């Protein structure tokens, strides 16, 4: 009897369990739509004739692009121009391939960018060191390099007056080697002359243009001539040609000042500082602005106030008191107490 009652009770429990299960609503998850793939963002960079190995402005622009690849996930394309007649073709290639942003490195591409940007109004362009303000699809990265030129000029002028500096400093003569007599070069030079003369009015400044940005041998020969004429500091503003200037300083054991990037690694005992130009910063910032739909055409300025220009940490050759005076000059420029012009001083035009 007990066994029969147990079986009956078990049957009832099972029937109730089945009924409860039937009341539970079961749903099959709806198939999820495929997540749309992230749209590829392409940036093309066209170098000046100096190429990526100029250790200077082309190198820095590519550095900013590489940062965008790493941090923003952009797809990059780079083409090195072998001659000036390549500019238009290289810029057009990226525009035809529907790149989102095409970067032209250098003042010498102004005419090509002006022409190509008009042919491809839906493509955004960035040009470094040239002001193009009449194109809604062109951003011009402009640098107040007269400011950093001024600071390394102050440093050079003070060093020439400082006793006890090794390597025969004290001849009160410096050499300037420019690539071409164009605004991005002359802005540095104008600032340097003003800075050096502000602390050392009697300093002799020997300026020579090579006419090229891609001829290290010519740069070296030019600097050797200046050194033979008494220059114990040489400052180059000559792109790849300037690597030869640094070689000359190393060979003759005098001092050099680098340009655009910190070039101390090229000759650690000779390159005492470098006038810095944040083209990597500008390149990255403008790429990001396009990606964020915040692109602004026209001039975009970079100077001491936004770390767009500056100078590399000086080597131990430069006395602390000299560095302090240079830093003070930098602060006075930021505060508006020192006005640095980008006009070439009389006698150097």
From TrEMBL:
Its main location: membrane. PROSITE patterns: PROKAR_LIPOPROTEIN (PS51257). Coiled coil: none annotated. It holds the Pfam family Bmp. InterPro entries: BMP_lipoprotein, Peripla_BP_I, PnrA-like. The keyword Cell membrane applies. It is found in: Cell membrane. Keywords: Cell membrane, Lipoprotein, Membrane, Signal. GO terms for cellular component: plasma membrane. It is a lipid-anchor. Residues 43-341 form the ABC transporter substrate-binding protein PnrA-like domain. SUPFAM superfamilies: Periplasmic binding protein-like I. Belongs to the BMP lipoprotein family. This is BMP family ABC transporter substrate-binding protein. It comes from Desulfosporosinus fructosivorans.
């Amino acid at each position: 009897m007990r066994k029969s009652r147990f079986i009956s009770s078990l049957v009832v429990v099972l029937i109730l369990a089945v009924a409860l299960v039937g009341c539970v609503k079961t749903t099959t998850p709806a198939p999820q739509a495929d997540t749309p793939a992230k749209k590829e963002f392409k940036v093309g960079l066209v170098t000046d004739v100096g190429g990526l190995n100029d250790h200077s402005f082309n190198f820095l622009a590519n550095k900013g692009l590489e940062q965008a690849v790493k941090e923003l996930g952009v797809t990059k394309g780079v083409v090195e121009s072998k001659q000036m007649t390549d500019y238009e073709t290289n810029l057009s290639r990226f525009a035809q391939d529907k790149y989102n942003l095409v970067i032209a490195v250098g003042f010498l591409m102004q005419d090509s960018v002006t022409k190509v940007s008009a042919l491809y109004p839906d493509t955004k362009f960035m040009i470094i060191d040239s002001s193009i303000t009449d194109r809604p699809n062109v951003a011009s990265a402009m640098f107040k390099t007269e400011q950093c030129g001024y600071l390394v000029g102050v440093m050079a002028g003070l060093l020439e007056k400082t006793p006890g500096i090794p390597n025969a400093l004290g001849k009160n003569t410096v050499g300037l080697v420019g690539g071409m007599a164009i605004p991005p070069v002359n802005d540095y030079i104008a600032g340097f002359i003003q800075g050096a003369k502000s602390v050392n009015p009697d300093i002799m400044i020997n300026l020579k243009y090579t006419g090229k940005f891609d001829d290290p041998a010519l740069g070296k020969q030019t600097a050797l001539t200046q050194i033979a004429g008494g220059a114990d500091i040489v400052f180059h503003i000559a792109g790849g040609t300037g690597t030869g200037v640094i070689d000359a300083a190393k060979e003759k054991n005098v001092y050099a000042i680098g340009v655009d990037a910190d070039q101390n690694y090229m000759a650690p005992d000779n390159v005492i500082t470098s006038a810095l130009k944040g083209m990597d910063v500008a390149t990255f910032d403008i790429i990001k602005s396009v990606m964020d739909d915040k692109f602004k055409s026209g001039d975009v300025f970079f100077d001491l106030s936004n770390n767009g220009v500056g100078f590399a940490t000086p080597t131990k050759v430069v006395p602390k008191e000299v560095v302090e005076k240079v830093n003070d000059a930098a602060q006075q420029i930021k505060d508006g107490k020192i006005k640095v012009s980008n006009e070439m001083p009389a006698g150097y035009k």
